[in-house]
Write a structure and sequence with these properties.
Blueprint lengths: L27 H12 L2 H6 L2 H16 L4 E5 L1 H18 L6 E5 L17 H11 L6 E5 L6 H12 L3 E5 L3 H4 L6 E3 L15 H20 L16 H15 L4 H10 L4 H10 L3 H10 L4 H6 L7
Parallel strand pairs: 1-2, 1-3, 3-4, 4-5
Length: 309
């Protein structure tokens, strides 16, 4: 839908915040207080959108189960937040780098250097999806704080043409109705402390929501047991330590060396190692059991007791 009739000055993210009009003469402490007070509004704004966030999680789970991928598309801060969330999924949940991807106008160089001139190209957003081979099995989440960014809108429109599931995330209610998508998420964060600086409250709300979508989807796919990241990749000392602590908590093992030995025997797969230890199975048997339970550790452990609840 056209956005030509929309006056940018009327957008909530562009309006003047009356609480910070004199911020240029405030002390450092007063500046921090104003910013903190405004940031406190973000969680409430996000909370108002939880039903929509849940719909986005369900869409992502559906596409992942089809073997599809999730693509974030954004410009500037929005694009960087999408790339950030995507990059954190493999080490946290043990998924491939292909499963969740971030697309930012200007490519990876735009992560450290502004490419604002590319935001105005709707065909660029559409082309970016074509380059990724997006199909009906995928989900595309367009992120635009203002809701007007042509690059993002072009990508979402192209995603719909390709049959992909679509989510549009913006912080402007007046613009939300102009974008057709399966789910539209609009956290009403209001005017920024610095008018138009959407790297602030809008950026914070965006990060919260993106974290919810991917984390929620991964939980629904069995990547978490209790509240433990049992599919993590132990590729660093920090992650190896975490893997050992997770293994010990679930199995009752007390010795760190024995815990790590079992994880190594499971080719570094914490979830497999836990099944081996708890059920007395070989690595191959544990992997087979997990596969039969679609990767859900709770099911794999509960089946032994006949409890599938």
């Amino acid at each position: 839908m056209s956005t030509q009739h929309i006056d940018r000055a009327s957008l909530s993210t562009e309006r003047i915040n009356p609480l910070s009009e004199r911020i240029d003469v405030m002390s450092s402490r007063a500046i921090a207080e104003v910013m903190n007070a405004e940031d406190a509004r973000v969680a409430k704004a996000v909370r108002s959108q939880l039903d929509k966030v849940a719909e986005a999680i369900d869409l992502a789970v559906d596409r992942f189960k089809r073997g599809g991928r999730l693509f974030y598309v954004g410009c500037g801060t929005s694009g960087r937040l999408g790339v950030l969330d995507a990059s954190e999924c493999p080490p946290t949940f043990g998924v491939s780098h292909e499963m969740v991807q971030g697309i930012i106008a200007g490519g990876m160089s735009a992560l450290v250097r502004s490419s604002q001139e590319l935001e105005d190209d709707p065909e660029g957003g559409a082309h970016a999806l074509d380059e990724k081979g997006v199909s009906g099995s995928d989900i595309v989440i367009g992120i635009a704080a203002s809701g007007l960014t042509p690059f993002v809108r072009g990508a979402v429109e192209r995603a719909r043409e390709l049959g992909a599931a679509t989510v549009f995330l913006t912080c402007n209610e007046d613009v939300a109705m102009t974008m057709e998508a399966d789910v539209v998420i609009v956290p009403p964060v209001g005017p920024e402390v610095i008018a138009g600086s959407t790297r602030m409250k809008a950026g914070t709300a965006t990060k919260m929501i993106l974290n919810m979508i991917t984390t929620g989807a991964m939980i629904r796919l069995g990547k978490v047991y209790q509240n433990l990241m049992v599919d993590l990749r132990a590729l660093s000392e920090k992650m190896r330590d975490r893997a050992v602590r997770i293994f010990k908590k679930v199995t009752g093992e007390e010795d760190d060396d024995d815990a790590w030995k079992c994880i190594e025997d499971a080719n570094g797969q914490v979830k497999t190692a836990i099944v081996m230890k708890k059920l007395g199975l070989s690595p191959a048997e544990a992997e087979k059991r997990l596969e039969a339970c679609e990767g859900f550790l709770r099911r794999a452990l509960a089946e032994e007791k006949g409890d599938m609840s």
